[in-house]
Each structure stands twice: as C-alpha cells, then as structure tokens.
Amino acid sequence: xxxxxxxxxxxxxxxxxxGIGRAIAWSLAEQGxxxxxxxxxxxxxxxxxxxxxxxxxxxxxxxxxxxxxxHGYAGLVTAVKGIVQESGAQRLDILVNNxxxxxxxxxxxxxxxxxxxxxxxxxxxPFFLIQQLLPLLRDGGRIINVSSMGTRAAYPEMSVYAPAxxxxxxxxxxxxxxxxxxxxxxxxxxxxxxxxxxxxxxRNPEIARVIAQTIALGRVGQPDDIAGIVxxxxxxxxxxxxxxxxxxxxxxxx
Length: 254
Fold this sequence. Notes:
17% strand, 8 helices, alpha/beta
C-alpha cells in the first residue's frame, strides 16, 4: 500500500464547494478518502462535487453550516457525528479547516462588525470546531489548517485577515504539542496568490502577470497546487511532520 493512500479514512473539509476547498476535497477523494463536503450556501456546487466523487467510485456527503454565525460550528459538528456514525466508521480521520473569508481594508477603515466577522470565520470557528471534534478524531489523525502568506509578508490591506490567520497558526503550533501524545499531527498551509473565484486579482490575466513577477516559479497558484500539499499532510508519508507552517506560494515575495 502506498504511503499516500487514504483508503478507509474519513475527512471533513470546510468550505469545500469551490476554490481551494473543492480541490482539497477532490484530491483527498482521489487518494481513497471518504469526504464530508461542507458548504454554506452553494448547495448545487457541493452536490455536484459529491456526485462526481461517487461517480468515480468514492464516498462523499454534504454538510451545510454557516460558519460566520457565532455558533455555526455546532451544527456542523452534529452533522459530522451523524455522518460518521451512519457510515459505520468509528472515528473521523482528517480535519481540514479551509473555510475562510477575506477583507481587503486598512486599519483606519475597519469597523467592529468587520473585525468580529473575520475573526469568527478564520479563527474562532476553527478553534471550536477542533475542540468539539477532538473526541471524534482518531489517535494518529490529521488536522490541517489553511492559513495565508499574509502572516509572513506585510500587506496593509489585510489588517484584520492576517492577524486572524496568524492566530490560527499559533493554534496550530500549540495543538501540535498538546496532541502529540495522541499521535495527531497539526500543520498549517500558507497559500499565496491563487486563482479562485474569491481572488479576482489572481484570475485577471493582466494582474496575474504582474503578480507572477513576484513569484519565484513565475505564475500564480492554482487550487490543485494547494490541494496536493494538503493531501500529502493528510497521508502517512507526512507522519513525522507536525507543528509546521508550510509555505504554498511558489516562492512569492521571497
């Protein structure tokens, strides 16, 4: 059996109906994992992904939850527990905290409601999702948090988003130490400019060419570029990697 094989594993990917999350869910399914596809509103897209995974012989389910709501994570926890039980599995194996929202604004333009919402989705929800799912996560499981290169390079317009993601990275490090005795690895992946429907700048050909000049590998990223790294971290091949911030930018602004 390949060390990258995820057959028999169950994974939850938040924000998986589109963009990087969709690519991650698909990549994990390609390696044999059964995938819980979380979405907020894009049910059609989530259903289509699940149908595609099943058509290829895999297992997948959808789970809806508004992770911007103060206790939105609670409904997702309940759904995940139900799916795991109905599937006949004993435990959840992989948790990918991918769902996030960005806000491009400098500090002078941030309102308290903006601040609260960005922190809710990018830090508070992953924190409590991990907390509530830890009893369900098997020993030897994987937690992978999707952060941002905005925590290592200064972008003034990320005045709330970058601090929220920095908090997620701090959580990653301390949980790696706390969960080490259970052989659970915890890592963060830091994408850079990636062409998704949420990043119009990276999808615009002219702007993407300008951004590419700041990237060592000479192009903006694609969702699959990030998904491959996450699939590696979810696999047995990465069993000796924990507490790490993995740059996934193609060498942007190095």
